[in-house]
Design a protein that fits this description.
3-stranded parallel beta sheet; 4-stranded mixed beta sheet; 13 strands; 585 residues; 8% strand
């Protein structure tokens, strides 16, 4: 049959011709068996020819079918982003993005495999001691400090990022002894990994604070547990300081989170049941309100808003910074009737400077911490000796409640004491037992030895905390009620002024001393404010000219909005309050 042979020759000729364009395979219709064989031969000949260049897959149909085959591998950053999107957004959100952006994210099977193969999974209630040791060894670190209950992370530019040792949810049924058992469990397993846990920090919770007192022996004791048997105990050699109440041997270095401590002190000032007083001077928020109501003062002088004085957010730390600023303290000090309020705000300022501000030197931290301690001790002794004798209450309980009405909460008082003691203890350990006694004597902080000795005797007799419950036996920790700290919490006892009508706050105030573009202020320095003497030409539209103290200045528009704002409306830092505020909007 000559026809198939001629067809074969014709096929080769077509392949060797450069300008030839073979027809697509789909258009060839096989007529018989020989044609099918020749078609197969033709296909092989085309792909074996060096000069032939088959066309790429033509447009959409075949290209869409092989889209994912041609995609490159996903890098680690994209995989991490995909895992975060899946964890935070959920399966529905991930599928929505994955379907609308084809090929941009791995499929769900890949995501599940990545999560299962990841060694950094955190299981609720499971401690990761091995991974913690591996993580610390990568930095060459053998000491760590545990922070519980949403303590803010440290500055990652100074120290390595934090490591999540465990995550667990708790209820209010746990006791202080349960906390001690958990701390000792963490300590024991960390020692086995050659990691020394220096201590623990919490948010001034009552049960945690009671556990700290029991472990440290700060006017408290555990009768059925001897902590001194641990070979990894810290020990310092100190002289007989009448003002230092902490024993030399300690297993942990405890600290109360200073941010929560400051907010507790601020909330005490706002409490409707408290009547803080020192001598014949009252401590009240009215003195700060007078600064806002003073027509001779503008916000540039004090930097306060109405929401700073009546914060609905009990965890608002920024308002604590504003009411303790140097400008506010200077204005408060001008009025002799505000000496009590000035002392209280200065107390909060000392705690912020000693424990929160990162630029404070070690010497200034010690000075500020112990100044706050001695200030509270003097205040408390005055209430014991003077105010108590003038009370007309008949019962001892009513006298106690009336006396504590004029003082800070017991939690805040003991937290300030413990922080100062453990700060000194830690510095002694770091400085190899070289005590900074001369520095403290230089600032005359030791002139109150008699006061400290009296307070020591009072705490020893009145505030001794005993616990006869065995540490590793199951039982109800009924002795929590003996410490009676729950009634001292003012976080839920904010003054009723928050529920009052705020219509007066919403009134328009057209007289902010800004008439005729002139401002009078007591300040001579405008650090932190966008107020300049000269402005570049390309920024003229962002500034306008104004006279401040008869001097020409250029005020930025955002700074002008800041100065004219009387009430800041922002979401709360407290989770529950934030959800309530969001639902109302």
């Amino acid at each position: 049959k000559p026809k198939p042979q001629n067809q074969n020759l014709k096929t080769k000729t077509v392949v060797k011709t450069k300008n030839s364009k073979p027809k697509p395979f789909s258009k060839l219709k096989p007529q018989n068996q020989n044609h099918r064989q020749n078609q197969k031969l033709k296909t092989k000949t085309i792909f074996k020819t060096k000069t032939s260049k088959p066309k790429p897959l033509s447009k959409p149909k075949l290209q869409n079918q092989f889209w994912f085959w041609c995609m490159p591998r996903y890098d680690d950053k994209l995989k991490s982003f995909a895992i975060c999107l899946y964890i935070l957004g959920g399966k529905t959100t991930y599928e929505f993005v994955w379907l609308n952006l084809p090929g941009s994210l791995p499929n769900l099977t890949t995501i599940h495999s990545l999560i299962q193969n990841n060694d950094d999974n955190v299981t609720e209630g499971k401690f990761r001691f091995n991974k913690m040791a591996k993580y610390l060894n990568s930095f060459g670190v053998q000491h760590a400090y545990c922070a519980e209950d949403s303590i803010p992370p440290p500055n990652q530019t100074v120290v390595p990022p934090s490591f999540v040792l465990a995550g667990y949810g708790t209820s209010s049924k746990y006791t202080s002894l349960d906390i001690l058992r958990r701390w000792l469990f963490i300590h024991k397993n960390s020692i086995e990994q050659n990691v020394r846990i220096l201590g623990f920090s919490t948010d001034a919770d009552n049960k945690y604070f009671r556990a700290m007192r029991l472990m440290s022996g700060f006017y408290a004791s555990l009768s059925n547990f001897d902590v001194h048997v641990d070979s990894s105990m810290f020990s310092i050699q100190i002289s007989n300081w009448s003002w230092y109440f902490l024993r030399p041997e300690q297993l942990f270095v405890f600290m109360q989170d200073a941010t929560h401590l400051v907010t507790k002190l601020r909330n005490r000032l706002l409490s409707a049941t408290a009547a803080l007083q020192v001598g014949d001077k009252c401590i009240t928020m009215k003195h700060l309100q007078q600064l806002l109501d003073n027509e001779e003062l503008i916000r540039l002088d004090h930097g306060l808003t109405q929401s700073d004085l009546k914060p609905t957010d009990r965890q608002n730390f920024r308002s604590c910074l504003r009411i303790t600023s140097c400008d506010v303290l200077n204005l408060i000090a001008r009025d002799d009737n505000s000496n009590g309020t000035y002392m209280y705000l200065k107390l909060i300022k000392l705690i912020i400077t000693s424990y929160i501000e990162p630029t404070t030197s070690i010497e200034e931290r010690l000075k500020g911490a112990w100044t706050a301690v001695f200030l509270l001790r003097l205040w408390w002794v005055w209430l014991l000796l003077v105010r108590l004798s003038s009370l007309s209450s008949s019962s001892t309980k009513s006298r106690k409640n009336c006396r504590e009405k004029y003082f800070v909460t017991r939690t805040a008082f003991f937290s300030t004491e413990l922080n100062a003691h453990y700060l000194t203890y830690l510095i002694i350990l770091v400085q190899q037992k070289q005590l900074p006694v001369e520095l403290l004597k230089k600032h005359k902080l030791f002139d109150m030895n008699a006061l400290s000795e009296y307070l020591h005797n009072h705490l020893r007799l009145k505030s001794k905390l005993h616990d006869n419950v065995q540490l590793f036996e199951n039982g109800n920790d009924d002795s929590d009620s003996e410490f009676d700290l729950d009634s001292d919490d003012d976080d839920d006892d904010i003054s009723s002024v928050h529920n009052e009508s705020s219509s007066s706050e919403a009134e328009d105030d057209d007289d902010d001393n800004m008439g005729d573009e002139q401002m009078k202020t007591f300040k001579t320095s405008f650090d932190g404010l966008n107020i300049k003497d000269n402005v570049p030409t390309d920024q003229d539209k962002s500034y306008f000219k104004i006279k401040i103290n008869d001097m020409n200045k250029f005020l930025h528009k955002s700074t002008a909005c800041y100065l004219l704002t009387r009430d800041n409306n922002s979401l709360s830092t407290d989770r529950l309050t934030r959800v309530i505020q969001t639902s109302k909007k």
